[in-house]
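Posting this for the archive.
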Amino acid sequence: MAELKYGRVLLKISGEGLCKPGGSGIDGSALRTLAEEIKLVADLGVQLGVVVGGGNIFRGSTLADDTQIEEATGHYMGMLATVINALAVQDTLESMGVPTRVQSAIAVDRVCEKFIRRRAMRHLEKGRVVILAAGTGNPFVTTDTGAALRAAEIRADVLLKATKVDGVFSADPVEDPTAQRFDRLTYNDVIDRRLEIMDVSAIDLCQRSRIPIIVLDVRIPGNMCAALSGETRGTMIDSGD
């Protein structure tokens, strides 16, 4: 087994990672592929926390203007969508023999635990994958910021940001085939260049907490394991020291 560079990891995955490209809802094949990659990481002995988004089911920030639903309510609905995704990831992982716990920032005590920092850390120490749902429990906060906050709370060594492409590019590589991929950036580079891979508050929190960010495509087999072993994968975002 390769020597690990990082022992405790926070993985941020979008809700779109649980469905077919351009689709919505939960696709069984996409879910299993994601779970298989998470299992590979867990099998290395990594203490793994996972923050999952809910955009495949509902986005609270994109309610139609003609609805009577307040934006704050929409955000709470989006948080509940992340709980649905977390339960799907949990059952799929446990069917593969991976012990898990789901913790939610919003109390849903019939199906998962309430997020308690010390309990989450204890689960990690016992080798359980902890799936963190409902963001921060507050509206108007992105799941990226929620992931950065949880990474700081559990004292993660690195935050893995799973995207549709393998790294950070100067432009959307789907629309611009000449877009440049960066191997390494500083936190300030991301902010100053407005690269929008994560929102500014998430980048700032990681910078203050000295948590490096690796942006990669989790769908590439073995990509996460290679990154955690110190291989250059995707884009590294850190202080540049």
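The longest strand covers residues 8-13. The mean pLDDT is 93.
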